[in-house]
Specification:
This protein has 434 residues and is mainly beta. The chain has three helices and 26 strands. It is a lipid-anchor; GPI-anchor. InterPro entries: COB_C (IPR056900), COBRA_pln (IPR006918). It is found in: Cell membrane.
Length: 434
């Protein structure tokens, strides 16, 4: 019996790392890091490292990605183009040419915009910001070139790096081992000749909100035209550990120079609220027409230190298969399972509202959505008009308990004045007729 329990426990533990990183709304989402060995050198190789964000709605925002690994042998980095390591390490044993990095486990970051052209590489120099595939495929790629020394000089002698790590910019990503794949093929500029890398390996990194943080980073509140009740975010929805460090909206500290400057550790400065969330999403059922209904979406930033660039809002609701028009946001249906179309991504229009400003008067973006009714399924009863899931920047938001949703009244409230008016009207009609 103990043996069976032990075996079952082993399989359960073995399954946990895979299940926590699975996103049902983006089952194929990942960040793939590809190494292409482009040429051999006297003591190693020159490789192009490309980072592709295949996640539909989760991006890497400022201060950007950080990539790390452990060398399999005694490799060093002679030079880099389009990126740099954060530390050089001990290179004292080298005479003459000094390597760019001698650490066993280098840490690499992207270069900043405005880097001189002779230090740039294709798709580099964005400060580590990486857009999501669903929002902006052209900006979802980052790349750099690295010259590796004291490594193998053939396909059989090169040893793949190990223990890859990815911060984006905080924890949450888990990277698998490097795997050799068929060499990448390239077309020449005239598209008449095809070349290929000498050797290629891939590393796949997946995201888990469970690993990224203990509590949600956003919450959802609700209201409707047919009920005066406003369902607020749950109390302490994002944890109340920082309640003593929050700041009131009328505090004089907000006028201090530099208070809005982001810190290296991304420590937030959150406005004091009962939910203690940096982001609140409000869903308001605004109007009801004969064949359509209208929803107002509002996203509010309560963090005084972060401007959310290229933000995304993902909503799951059964009527999103009949979206007629979206005002002041861009919209894209997400169909991870071809037979089900109940999920959509909202995001800001470029150069208009794709930047959600820090907490304050400008820290809000909003839009309205017009949806066509499906008479077989549409209803305002039992909270049907409210979302099933909401994600902001790829992290799931905490919804209120279902029994607190604004409910549809069973019957209209009777007014004594209206009843009296109706009675006199009937008496007057009776007098005329009889």
């Amino acid at each position: 019996m103990r043996g069976l329990i032990g075996v079952a426990g082993f399989f359960l533990i073995a399954l946990i790392p895979h299940t926590v990183a699975f996103d049902p709304l983006d089952p194929n989402g990942n960040i793939t890091i590809k190494w292409d060995v482009m040429s051999w050198t006297p003591d190693g190789y020159v490789a192009t490292v490309t980072m592709n964000n295949f996640q539909m709605y989760r991006h890497i925002m400022t201060p950007g990605w950080t990539l790390g690994w452990t060398w399999a042998k005694k490799e060093v980095i002679w030079s880099m183009v389009g990126a740099q390591t954060t530390e050089q390490g001990d290179c004292s044993k080298f005479k003459g040419n000094i390597p760019h990095c001698c650490k066993k486990n280098p840490t690499v970051v992207d270069l900043l915009p405005g880097t001189p052209y002779n230090q740039q590489f294709t798709n580099c120099c964005k400060g580590g910001v990486l857009a999501s595939w669903g929002q902006d495929p052209q900006s979802s790629v980052s790349a750099f070139q690295v010259s590796v020394g004291q490594a193998g000089t053939t396909n059989k002698t090169v040893k793949l790096p190990k223990n890859f790590t990815l911060l984006g910019p905080g924890p949450g990503y888990t990277c698998g081992p490097a795997k050799i794949v068929p060499p990448t093929k390239f077309f020449t500029p005239d598209l008449r000749r095809k070349t290929q890398a000498l050797m290629t390996w891939n590393v796949t990194c997946t995201y888990s909100q469970f690993l990224a943080r203990k509590h949600p980073s956003c919450c959802v509140s609700m209201s409707s035209f047919y009920n005066e009740t406003i369902t607020t975010c749950p109390s302490c929805a994002c944890g109340c550990e920082n309640r003593n460090k929050c700041i009131k909206s009328d505090s004089k500290l907000l006028s201090v120079v530099g208070v809005n400057t982001p810190r290296k550790d991304n420590a937030p400065l959150i406005q004091c609220t009962h939910h203690m969330c940096p982001i609140r999403v409000h869903w308001h059922v605004k109007l009801n027409y004969k064949d359509y209904w209208r929803v107002k979406l509002t996203v509010t930033n309560f963090n005084y230190r972060i401007n959310y660039t290229q933000w995304t809002l993902v909503v799951q609701h059964p009527n999103l298969n009949n979206v007629t028009q979206v005002f002041s946001f861009d919209y894209k249906p997400l169909v991870p399972y071809q037979s089900i179309n109940d999920t959509g991504m909202f995001y800001g229009m470029k150069f208009y509202n794709d930047l959600l400003m820090e907490a304050g008067p400008s820290g809000t973006v909003q839009s309205e959505v017009l949806l066509q009714k499906d008479k077989e399924t549409f209803s305002f009863n039992q909270g049907w008009a409210f979302p099933r899931k909401v994600y902001f920047n790829g992290d799931e938001c905490m919804l209120p308990p279902p029994d607190t949703y604004p409910y549809l009244p069973n019957s209209a409230h009777r007014s004594p004045a209206a009843f009296t008016t109706l009675l006199f009207s009937l008496l007057f009609l009776f007098t005329i007729l009889f």
